[in-house]
Sequence to fold (530 residues):
Amino acid sequence: MSIARKTAIVGVGSTPYYKRGRSAPQTLHELVGKAILAAVEDAGLNVEDIDGFASYSGGFDTPYLMETLGIPEVRFSSILTGSGGGSAGAVGLASAAVVSGLADVVVVVGGVQQGEQRFGSVTQSYDSVPENAYWEAAGLIGPGHMFSLLARRHMHRYGTTREHFAEVAISTRTNAMNHPDAIIRKPLTREDYFAAPMIADPLCLFDFCLESDGAIAVIVTSAERAADLRQKPVLVHGCTHGGEAGWGRSLYWMNMPEDQFLTSGHRSVAKDLWRQSGLAPEDMDVAQIYDHFTPMVITQLEDYGFCAPGEGGPFVASGAIRFDGGSIPVNTDGGQLSGGYIWGMSHIREGVAQIRGEAVNQVPDAKYCLVTGGPSSIPMSGLILGV
Amino acid sequence: MTVIAKSPAEELFQLTTDQWTKPWWDAAKARRLTAACCGNCRKFRMPPTPFCPHCRSQELEWPTLSGRGTLFSFTIVNRAIIPEMESCLPYVPALVDLEGAPGARLITNIVQTPIDRIAIGAPVEVVFDERRDGVVVPRFKVV
Fold:
C-alpha cells in the first residue's frame, strides 16, 4: 500500500506576499480564507466540497474556518507536528486521507502573519521550558543564530565558503527579478552580498529569508477525480516526513553526532521518498528547496542526493542550481530568500506551476519537481510533484 | 582594537528547571561543571532527560568534569534583532564538547576571549557567570 500517484493537486490559491506586518488589518484567518477560496475557484470546485483539512506548524482552527467559509462537514482535520519542516509533508497527510477514504477533497493550507512577533526573533517568544534553558542562556534569539552554528561546522569540515552561500542567494534573486509576485526584485551582485552586514557570522543579511505575510492553499483529491477537473492534474508521486533520532530536536538540542550535524536532517526522509516514488534525483527537472537560510539549501541538495555529502558548495558554485542552464534549477520563483516567506507553501505553489507548465521561469517540459520542507526539529518532509 | 566576546544580556533568559535539569544548574551554582550520566550504562546525555536513550534507565549521576572542552562550532552575533541585545554585542553562542563526557555537547557561550582567537577545535575552559538573579551559567573562554 502506498500513496504514490493516487492523488493530485487540483487547485492552488494564494494571497499576495506582503512585507512583514503589511497585510494588516486583514487577520491571519482572513488571509487563509482568501487562499482557500482562490484554490477551490482555481480547481473548479465549490468550497462546500472541502471535507478535510491538513496543515502544519500549529495549523489553523478548522471549525472557525468551517464557520466563516460555510463548509458543512469535515471528515478529516489534521496538523503535522513540528514547524516549517512539515510544509511539504502536509500534502502527504491529505493524500493519505484521500487514499484511505477518510476524505475526498482535502485543503492543505499554510500562512503567516508577522505583526507583533517577527520570525527573526521567534525563538525568543517560546515559553521558557527546562529543556530550552541551554540555548536561551546562550542568547540564541532566532533561527539564524542557530543555523549559523551548523553552517560554520559545514565550512570547517568540508571547506564550504561564503562564496557558496552567495551563489544560493544570487541565483535565487535572479529568479525573483522577473517574477511579478516576488517581494524583492532588484539585482543582487556579489559585491552587494559581501558588503551586507553580518547578522550571525558566518551568515549575513542575504543568507536570511525574508520576513513576510501571506497564505497559500492547495486542494488535494484522488487522481481519478482530478482527471475530470478544470486544471491539468499535478500528481503526488510521493510524500514523506520524519527524521532520525540523531537529528531529533536539532537546533534546540545541538547534540547531533557530527555526521548528522553536517546534514539538513532530511537524509532518512529523502531515502524514504525515493523508495516510495520509485524515482531518483536525476529524474527531477526542477526543485523547490526550503530556503530559510542559504547553507541549508546546500545541505538539502546533499541529503537528497543531487551531490555527495560535503560537495554542495562546489555543486552550487558550478551553476547547477541556476534557472539558466543549471542541471537542477532551484527555487525558480525566487524562493523565500527573495520571493516571499510563506512558511514553505510558496515552494508547493511553484512546484504546481512548473508541472502545469505555467511558471514564470518555466523549466521546459518539466515532468518532476522535488519540494522540501524546512530543516528544523523533526519532522522534515519531502514531496515529489509530477505529470 | 581587540574586541572581546561578551556575555549575552541577562534579560534574554529566565531559568526554569524540572527535576531532571535542576541538578545541573545547582552544580553550576556550586561552581561545578557536570553532565547527565546514566547510572546504569554510564553514557552521557545533554540536556538531561527522564530516560537514558541507550538503556531507558532513569538513574542519573552527576560526575564533576574537568571544566575543559573543545569548541565544536560557534557564531558571532554582531547585530541586535531585539533591543535587549544592544548592550551585549558582540556575543558568541558556542557548542562545546565536554572533556570526560563523550556524547555530551553543551550549548553555551565563548566569553572573555578576543574574537580573533575563537576557532573550531580550540581548547576551552569553563568560567562561571553569576547573574543578578543568582543563577550561575557555565560559559567558556579559549585557553
User: Anything to note?
Assistant: The helical segments of chain B are 22-29. Strands of chain B lie at 36-38, 44-45, 60-61, 68-74, 76-77, 92-98, 105-110, 123-130, 136-142. Chain B has a mean pLDDT of 96.
